[in-house]
Specification:
By secondary structure, the chain is an alpha/beta fold. The strands form 3 sheets. Strands 1-13-11-5-7-9-10-4-12 form a 9-stranded mixed β-sheet. Strands 2-3 form a two-stranded antiparallel sheet. A two-stranded parallel sheet has the order 6-8. It is globular and about 65 Å long. It starts with a strand and ends with a strand. The mean pLDDT is 97.
Length: 221
């Protein structure tokens, strides 16, 4: 039995992904009524327009997001963003907001997408989601680099602690060419292991972050 599990949030006009950033403006560029005038067979088409910052919804960070000479979205080979072997690390926020190196001490993560399930996505769309959220420590990021992780995802507001003015986890992971996927959801529905993970953005030159449809393929029962 093969299951597809959606791990990304919907993008809705005016939504807040990251406090301080504008929400997306979504509208018709070409309405069905306008287009119908151009066809004699009753055809009509809708063409949409969206204006948004790249950090909207569930998105992928490429090294260019943090480093000017890092790979941008167009430079990401499919092998880095699609059909990756995945695993889930569970961390309840009640145990503390910081997800430290110990959470990853006993896992084999070389070449894998390591997804951190904190349950924080249950607060999505509320003020609670935007502050005092779970995050990875610098020590955890260093361990993931040493263990050769290919991608690290989390279902909270940021993979770094946003209560301060430093972002060590972004620096450490992206500096090691390890991709980051933030604002994930539905991680609790995944098995701990034995699934494939995809989070593929458009191939945009000169950008380091963009929304993705993140999903997992789970084989077996």
């Amino acid at each position: 039995m093969r299951r597809l599990i959606d791990l990304s949030h919907d993008i809705v006009a005016g939504m807040t992904t990251y406090k301080g950033l504008p929400g997306p403006a979504i509208c018709d560029y070409w309405t069905r009524e306008q287009s119908a005038r151009n066809f004699s067979d009753g055809s009509s088409f809708q063409m949409g327009r969206i204006d948004m910052v790249s950090n909207t919804g569930t998105y992928l960070d490429a090294p260019f997001h943090r480093f000017e000479d890092g790979d941008d979205l167009s430079a990401l080979h499919l092998s880095r963003i699609a059909d990756l072997p995945g695993l889930v690390v569970r961390h309840a926020p009640e145990r503390g907001l910081a997800v430290d190196a110990g959470a990853f001490a006993d896992i084999e993560c070389a070449g894998r997408a390591v997804l951190v399930d904190t349950g924080w996505s249950r607060h999505w769309g509320t003020d609670a989601y935007l502050s005092d959220h779970p995050f990875l420590t610098a020590a955890a990021a260093e361990l993931l680099v040493a263990r050769g992780a290919a991608l690290v995802g989390i279902d909270s507001h940021n993979i770094d602690d946003t209560r301060g003015t430093t972002r060590p986890v972004h620096r450490i992971l992206l500096g090691a060419d390890i991709l980051i996927c933030e604002h994930m959801t539905n991680l609790a529905t995944l098995p701990d292991d034995n699934f494939r993970f995809t989070a593929a953005p458009p191939k945009i030159c000169g950008m380091g972050t963009f929304p993705v449809c993140a999903f997992a393929v789970v084989e077996g029962r």
